[in-house]
Amino acid sequence: MELFLEQLINSLQLGVMLFLLASGLTLVFGIMNVINLAQGSLYMIGAFAAATAVAHGAPFVIALLFGAACGCAAGVLMEITLVRWLYGRDHLDQVLVTFGVILFVNEIVSIVWGRSPIFMSVPAALSGSVNLLGVPYPVYRLVVIGIGLAVAVALYLLIGYTRIGMLVRAGATHREIVEALGVDIGLLFTFVFGLGGLLAGLAGAAVGPLFAVSVGMGEQILIPTFVVIVIGGLGSVRGAFIAALLVAAIDTFGRAYIPSALEHLFSASTADTLGAGLSAVSIYVFMAVVLILRPRGLFPVASR
After folding, report:
1. Nearest partner of 209 among 5, 31, 6, 13, judged by Cα
2. pLDDT tens-digit profile of 203-225?
3. pTM more than 0.90
4. Residue 86 CB coordination number (10 Å)
5. Kind plus residue range of the DSSP H or E element containing 192
6. CA dist., res. 251 & res. 69, Å (int)
7. CB 222 within 8 A of CB 36
8. End-to-end Cα spacing for the chain
9. Which among 129, 170, 166, 155 is positioned nearest to 31, based on CA atoms?
10. How far is it, in rounded angstroms, from Cα 7 to Cα 259?
11. CA distance 71 to 77
């Protein structure tokens, strides 16, 4: 029971992190019809920015905000200089350009910060543990969960109950009509891309103390993020949230329980190796099942 509870909270923490990345990515695709492979680079920029702020003595909250702001600024810069020239172009062009951005950003980060990983320490006030039904659990991981859930609520309110959210929803399904009504669709697209960068930068800053901040860290999380938006439905923030929690639960519980279950059939070393492989592939099997049953994902947005 203790192991189950611990893995449940771990899966929630991974899920909210995936949601922060996937929500921005699914908005960009759903509204702008742009495939942005460089979302992971914005995540990495946020992590390095936060680590640099902490290293210079900034309070951790300021470092989080700084990482989110740097991710937002990088996203806006990328949209203005590159992405806006890709609207209406083939998806292959978008993939090639944003893949080039990944390589470019990795090299810039290597020049500025070097290849060695940076380790952020957990703030002293959040370094302890709390007892959850008999299971000691790090306070900081709970804070990360809280940040993710707060962002999910804020994003839900922004998209569902504000004028900007109304324009975002309308732009996702009736782009030409929105533009014909006098809305500056270019400015709306820049806002959406910047919002995606802000969420990615915040995710990178928040997980900095949990993982090593290193060059290429964005690519490691990019594929699971794409799995989330495919399962949830392209353009659906609600789908991204639910799919992120499902993918995180399958991945976390698979890594915790599959190797031990295989030990009844194989030796310990074989069970660990085979279990790790089966755990890694489980989210892709789940995605395949979802797409067989619901080809447009769990919560598809209305077609244009």
Report:
1. 13
2. 999 988 888 888 888 888 888 88
3. no
4. 21
5. helix 185-207
6. 30
7. no
8. 47
9. 170
10. 14
11. 10
